[in-house]
Design a protein that fits this description.
With 328 residues, this protein is of the alpha/beta class. Helices cover 30% and strands 23% of the residues. Bound molecules: iron/sulfur cluster. The site of iron/sulfur cluster (SF4) has 12 residues, from helix 11.
Length: 328
C-alpha cells in the first residue's frame, strides 16, 4: 500500500471559449500539475483568485472532467467524472464548500440533511438512527436541539459545522476543503480550524485545503503548494515553506502576510514587490508565466517554461533562477 492517499499526475483542465473575440481559444485553468497527498496529512493548495486552485479541487472530487491527466486514489486510477465513479468512491472522497448556504437545502431540517447521505450509502444505524445523527452533531460541536432547525436558523459558522458533519457522515478518507472559513469571522475561523484538526486525528482523515489565506496555513497544513496561473510554482513541507522559500512568487506572497508579534517580525521575509498585472489565463505569457511580474526575471524566463525540480526532500520549485543558482 502506497503512503499516498491521492496522486494527481499531469492534470489539465481547459475551458474552451465559444463566443466573442477569443472564440476558439481556451482558458487554461489548470495546466499540467502533479501533486500527492499522504495518508493523514493536509496539503494546502494556495493561490490568488483565478490561480486554478478551486478548479483543481473540483477535478479531484469529479465535478469537472479533466482535459488530461490521471487521478489515483488509494493506489487505484479513478475516473475524473463523478458520474463514472462507483458509489464507494463518492463516499470516501467528500467536499466542504466555501459557502454552505449554496449546498445545504434551506427547506430541510438538520436531521434530514444528515440522514440523506447515510441513506444513500446504506450507513444508517438501524438500532439508533437518531442517536447516530446526534453523535455527528456532537462531533462538530453543535447542540442536539438543532436537529429540527433548518440551515436558515443557523449562523454562518454553524452552517459550515453542519457541512463538515455531513461530509463526515460517510466516514471518508479524504475531505476537500474549499476555502471553508473564508466567509467567517476570525474567531469562528479558529474554532473551525481547531475542530478540523481534532477530527483529522480522531478519524485519520487526509485533507486537501484550498485557500488564499497563507496565515491559516502555518498551523494547519503539513505541506503547502503554491499555484500561479494554472501551474504549481513550489511545493514544500510547511516549515520549510515559511522559513526557506525559493520561488520569487512564494516570497512575494509571504512578504505580504501581516505580522502580529515581534517574533514574527524577526522571521518576516524581505518585501518582494511584484511588477505588472496578473496576465489573462487565455493569453499566458511565453516562457515562465510569472515573467511579467517577477522582479528577478532574466532572458531565459521569456523563452523557456521552467519545469518542476526537486531542490530538497519533498521540496520542489519551478524557476530557472533557482535551478541555475543550485547548479553553479
Ligand atoms: Fe522569475 Fe524567471 Fe523564476 Fe519565472 S523562472 S519565477 S520569471 S526568475
Amino acid at each position: 500500500m502506497s503512503e499516498n492517499i491521492l496522486e494527481v499526475n499531469n492534470l489539465k483542465k481547459y475551458f474552451p471559449i465559444t463566443k466573442g473575440k477569443e472564440k476558439g481559444l481556451s482558458v487554461k485553468a489548470v495546466d499540467d500539475i502533479s501533486f500527492s497527498i499522504k495518508r493523514g496529512e493536509t496539503l494546502a493548495l494556495v493561490g490568488e483568485s483565478g490561480s486554478g486552485k478551486s478548479t483543481t479541487a473540483y477535478n479531484v472530487i469529479g465535478m469537472y472532467s479533466a482535459t488530461a491527466g490521471q487521478i489515483i486514489f488509494k493506489d487505484e486510477p479513478i475516473s475524473n467524472n463523478i458520474k463514472e465513479r462507483p458509489l464507494r468512491l463518492r463516499k470516501e472522497i467528500q467536499m466542504v464548500f466555501q459557502d454552505p448556504g449554496t449546498t445545504l437545502n434551506p427547506r430541510r431540517i438538520v436531521k434530514d440533511i444528515l440522514s440523506l447521505p447515510l441513506k444513500i450509502h446504506k450507513l444508517v444505524d438501524k438500532k439508533d438512527p437518531v442517536g447516530q445523527i446526534v453523535r455527528l452533531l456532537e462531533e462538530v460541536e453543535l447542540p442536539m436541539e438543532y436537529l429540527f432547525k433548518t440551515p436558515l436558523a443557523l449562523g454562518g459558522g454553524e452552517r459550515q459545522m453542519l457541512a463538515v458533519a455531513r461530509a463526515l457522515s460517510t466516514n471518508p478518507d479524504l475531505i476537500v476543503l474549499d476555502e471553508p472559513t473564508s466567509a467567517l469571522d476570525v474567531s469562528i475561523q479558529a474554532k473551525i480550524i481547531n475542530m478540523l484538526l481534532r477530527l483529522q486525528k480522531d478519524y485519520d482523515l487526509s485533507y486537501l485545503f484550498i485557500t488564499l489565506d497563507l496565515s491559516l496555513v502555518r498551523n494547519f497544513a503539513t505541506r503547502v503548494a503554491i499555484m500561479y496561473l494554472g501551474k504549481i510554482a513550489e511545493i514544500a513541507p510547511t516549515e520549510i515553506f515559511f522559513s526557506d522559500p525559493e520561488h520569487p512568487y512564494t516570497k512575494m506572497l509571504l512578504s505580504a502576510i501581516p505580522v502580529i508579534s515581534e517574533k514574527e517580525e524577526e522571521v518576516k521575509h524581505a518585501k518582494v514587490t511584484p511588477k505588472g498585472e496578473i496576465p489573462s489565463p487565455v493569453n499566458v505569457p511565453k516562457g515562465c508565466s510569472f515573467n511579467t511580474r517577477c522582479p528577478l526575471a532574466f532572458d531565459r524566463c521569456f523563452v523557456e517554461d521552467p519545469v518542476m525540480k526537486e531542490v530538497a526532500s519533498d521540496h520542489q520549485v519551478r524557476c530557472h533562477l533557482v535551478e541555475e543558482r543550485r547548479q553553479s
